[in-house]
Specification:
There is one protein chain. The protein is α/β, with parallel strands linked by helices. It has one domain. The chain is built from 2 helices and 8 strands, in the order αβαβββββββ. A 5-stranded mixed β-sheet has the order 1-8-6-4-2, with helices on one face. Helix 1 crosses helix 2.
Length: about 140
Amino acid sequence: MTKSLNTLAAAFVAVSIGTAGLVTPAAAGGSVSISVAPANAKQEKAMRAGLGLYALYNGIRNGGIRQRGTGNSAGLVQNGTGNLGIVHQEGRGHDGTLQQNGNGNSHGLFQFGRNTSGHVAQTGNGGTGATFQFGW
């Protein structure tokens, strides 16, 4: 379990470092989106564990929406069983939806800053992923 958490932590650090060079000055106005999908079973376990820990910490069972800020809109649709869907918005003016069709899927849409728009459709069974959006 510790090794999985270490792998998940390393993945999030890598995503954070990778996005540092993509951000332009605040005056430019815009956004950047990064979608992460595991390449193998080990990475999938780590990502599912991370999303599960986030859900546990925030009292989410199968899916949930967390919003901090103003002017945000979010939606979550789940068709199937055993899915975990998370939409997390911090900032203002975000628009995001997550639709899961199938069983045993897990995905998180995380929006930060302002004025991002993200719409994720996850179909099939046993899929895992995360989408990060940063707006300025």
